[in-house]
Amino acid sequence: MAKKRKAIIDTNYCVACGTCVKVCPLQIIHIEQGVFAKINYDKCVGCGKCARVCPASVIEVQMMEVAN
Ligand code: SF4
Ligand code: SF4
User: Rounded to two decimals, what is the model's pTM?
Assistant: First the structure.
């Protein structure tokens, strides 16, 4: 198991503003059913751009176990 940096969203407190969606260089975040932001974790490179711009500060970059 390798460890990689991935952005994690606390969806309970996400206000679905869409700011993170716009800044992600890989365009892998979308707003799920208009309620909260969701990341395609397989593709996230953990750059942290989304975390820096989130007005609600609900995104954190963490080390996560990945399968490859
Ligand atoms: S950490 Fe970077 S690649 Fe991952 S979702 Fe956020 S902006 Fe996109
Ligand atoms: S920037 Fe923050 S509050 Fe806005 S949609 Fe993304 S995670 Fe939710």
Answer: 0.94
